[in-house]
Amino acid sequence: MTLAMPDTTTQTKRKSRKRRPPVFDTPLGRATLQALAVIVFFALWEFGVRMGWISNFLVGSPAGIFALAYKMTLTGELLSDTWYTLFEAILGFVIGTILGSVIGLALWYSTFVAKLVEPFIIAINSVPKIAFAPIIILWFGTGLFSKVALAVSLTAIVALIAAYQAAKDADTDLQSLMVSMGATKHQIFYRAVVPSTLPSIIATFRINIGFGLVGAVVGEFISSQRGLGHMIYAASSLYDLNTVWVGLFTLMIMGFILYYVIDIIERAMLPWKMASTSRQLQV
């Protein structure tokens, strides 16, 4: 009597079939579902407007929004306002994130100074930064610098707190080991503290890119002659809802693109983290 040996090739194929994700559980599948959801949303919206169930005056209509966006794109008005707001947001994001991160990391050097300034950081963070907008407009005028300064005020404090907390939570065992091996404080900072804080600092990029846009748009609301914020504010005062939606949807698309740019930066700067995440998802 002979025992039939199991076919390992067949078992491997069966396991691979079991592990195969559903059709829509792929990047292309998810993108397809997301696109369908957007199409259905706008289709129902337009249908409701045409049937009279939704007020065109109070809500606008997708057909009017797309027609207006196409017209503003051809005239260059939409692109001009978009680039102006984008430049303000990115400049404020870069300056604020770098400034806040550097200060937050620098506080690691002195526990005394960190404890001394910590109440002031908490106090500043507890105040809605939008409240600083009128003061910033008075200080820097109504031009580009005031919008950038407002974006910096929103992003810097977030980056500072994140970097400071990450520096405090850096691996103490590794730091003690480096001290026992005769490492200087500067060597510990650059070899242990900074690498361990990078994931937290880059994680704040995702938050700060939104705050950069908020600072730019709010500054344009208060006083500006250009930008998406000015376009939305001027259109809302005239009850032009289609133009308001054009500005809002443009901001959404802008934020979506910037978010994925940050994702690319994270993948480039922290390849080990992305590889670890992908392995966990596969398991």
Give a quick precis of the structure.
With 283 residues, the chain is mostly helical.
Secondary structure class reads mainly alpha
Tell me which CATH architecture of the domain at 86-274 applies here: Orthogonal Bundle
> For the CA atoms, what is the radius of gyration?
26 Å
What is the H/E string?
A: HHHHHHHHHHHHH
Task: Give the assembly state of these chains.
Answer: single chain
Question: Remind me, CATH topology of the domain at 86-274?
Answer: MetI-like fold
Q: Tell me the major beta sheet.
A: none
Please report the total strand number as a whole number: 0
Broad CATH class of the domain at 86-274: Mainly Alpha
CATH superfamily of the domain at 86-274: MetI-like
Helices, by number, come to: 13
Distance between the termini: 40 Å
Average of pLDDT: 82
As a percent range, the share of strand residues is under 5%
- Helical content band: over 70%
Shape: globular
- The residue ranges in which pLDDT falls below 50 over 5 or more consecutive positions are none
